[in-house]
Specification:
By secondary structure, the chain is an alpha+beta fold. It is built from ten helices and 19 strands. It is elongated, with a radius of gyration of 26 Å.
Length: 435
């Protein structure tokens, strides 16, 4: 018998674990690190499709299921439980079929096999993100079994190629570009690829960079005949960082969203310098990243930082010197040191979710009811792809039920009890939006 509520649904534990076992069993072929590791997401997708097969419209069921691939073997899966009103929907997107690589020797269990230890579910993808794929698949089987009468259509999209964007046009970016998910704009879109049970209401933008200093190599006994690239690059970076923090101060909106840290620019790597103790190097490179809260524009940030570098090169000798024989130019030789900034890869912008939307309010209330607390999270960590969806007109919200501490780490695990609560949060969210 159909009803107009889904709030009574529970996770079907045996069915969930059976599917999750199959998905984790494919994880070795789902590792995404081009060019060495190209995932075959269909190896996971076929198990999802098999689980949904009896409930498809074509087989007398109610679910609309579509497999959409733009690269061979790398399909996305679109699922819909139809509602009564054409322009109302609730969507769960972002749970992905690829995983980050795992080095088996670093794990205490086989990363490519589901290991159950009490409440803990170990294996690559249990948290990020095959556990969420199994969770949502089970939810749709429950919907197809109980057949509630709903105003909203309930959608899910399992995506390919979330963990690496070196090969474009594979996953949700291409689905969005081709209009395949335009129908999801008629209601809140929940990106289900986060952790720790609480809504994520803000993320950060990220941009990697290299800063190279070019000087003059020379014997260290004669420092006045050299331009020390190490000193040049470190002093230049200090100036750049100082100006960055002057221009990108803590934004007033960050307090509202609860960010623990504001925008930052810092070095994270040195590129190797070949040489010896008694040789002053002629070239040095510092690498790092910028994290930007979503209340600042990434393009404007890049232009600002580029202007800092231009100003340094225009007056290189204004940089602090380290002694009377340490110079950044050698006029008698017509030589001047130089710093160059290189942006590495595409920037990934941050996102601030609309916390005034009904989509967020329903998720927040459901989370509070099920877990007993509401502690929304904002972080300068990045979630690729989501800003493009928000900019395309989707009411984007973010949540997830894995373990943040295990994301991309060795011995990744999730908790079965968290997934049980997750079903209650998702179904209660649906009920609140329905009513």
């Amino acid at each position: 018998m159909s009803s107009s509520t889904v709030g009574h649904y529970e996770l079907n534990e045996p069915r969930f674990l059976t599917l999750l076992t199959k998905l984790i069993g494919e994880a070795k072929t789902l590792q995404n690190q081009p060019p060495e590791l190209i995932p075959v997401e269909d190896n996971a997708g076929r198990h999802v499709l098999a689980a949904l097969e009896p409930y498809k419209v074509e087989n007398g069921g109610v679910l609309k299921v579509e497999h959409v691939a733009y690269h061979e073997g790398r399909g996305n899966i679109l699922i819909q439980y139809p509602g009564a009103v054409a322009d109302k929907c609730i969507s769960f997107v972002g749970s992905h079929l690829d995983v980050v690589p795992a080095i088996a020797d670093n794990w205490k269990v086989d990363p490519f096999k589901l290991t159950i230890d009490g409440d803990r579910l170990y294996g690559r993808g249990t948290t990020d993100c095959l556990g969420h794929v199994a969770l949502l698949t089970d939810l749709f089987i429950e919907l197809a079994t109980h057949k509630p009468t709903l105003k909203h259509s309930i959608n899910a999209v399992f995506i390919a190629s979330e963990e690496n964007d070196e090969i474009p046009g594979v996953g949700v970016d291409e689905l969005n570009k081709r209009g395949k998910i335009d129908h999801l704009k008629h209601g809140p879109l929940y990106w289900v690829d986060s952790a720790d049970m609480q809504p994520t209401i803000g993320t950060g933008g990220a941009q990697n960079w290299n800063l190279k200093a070019s000087g003059k190599i020379f014997h260290s006994a004669l420092p006045h005949k050299s331009i020390n690239s190490i000193e040049l690059v470190t002093e230049a970076l200090a100036v750049i960082q100082k100006r960055f923090y002057e221009d990108f101060k803590p934004h007033p909106e960050e307090h509202k969203y609860g960010y623990e840290v504001s925008s930052s620019m810092k070095p994270t790597l040195w590129k190797r310098i070949d040489g010896s103790y008694n040789q002053i190097p002629g070239e040095a490179v510092i690498c790092g990243d910028i994290r930007l809260t979503p209340f600042y524009n990434m393009d404007e940030m890049r232009k600002k930082v580029e202007s800092y570098v231009a100003d340094i090169n225009a007056d290189i000798n204004s940089l602090p010197s380290h002694g009377p024989f340490h110079k950044y130019s050698l006029p008698e030789e017509g030589l001047t040191g130089k710093v160059e900034l290189e942006w590495i890869g595409e920037s990934s912008p941050g996102v601030a979710c609309n916390i005034d939307s009904t989509g967020y309010k329903a998720l927040a209330q459901a989370t509070n009811e099920v877990t007993g607390e509401l502690k929304p999270v904002s972080t300068c960590g990045t979630l690729p792809l989501v800003k493009d969806l928000q900019d395309s007109g989707f009411d984007l919200q973010i949540t997830g039920f894995g373990k943040e501490e295990t994301y991309h780490g060795d011995n990744e695990y999730a908790s079965l009890s968290d997934f049980k609560k997750a079903v209650k949060i998702l179904t209660r969210t649906i009920d609140l939006l329905e009513n």
